[in-house]
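Working notes for the structural subgroup meeting. M.R. asked for a predicted model of this chain before we commit to crystallization trials. I am recording the input and output together here so anyone reviewing the notebook later can reproduce the run.

Input as submitted:
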Amino acid sequence: MRLMSTLTRIGLIFLAGAMITVLGTAEIWDEEAKEVTTIDLANTMLDVWALPLLILGVLMAMAMIGAAYLVRDERRENLEWEQRGEDA
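Returned structure, recorded in token form:
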């Protein structure tokens, strides 16, 4: 569990660093401003950002699965209480 947490943190730090590096380059900001349409946005997300979005989705899914695992309560008295009901 601790290894998975460490790998997730390292992955998020790596992804943030990659995105900052790409967005910080002067080439992106030197271009002339043009009107962006939804088609351009969709093409950019599916072509250029496909791998980072996939990695981000996997990391978020791992976080949600980990949170669901940590929230569940399997102590014996709680399981028996749920089976008996609240009134018993």
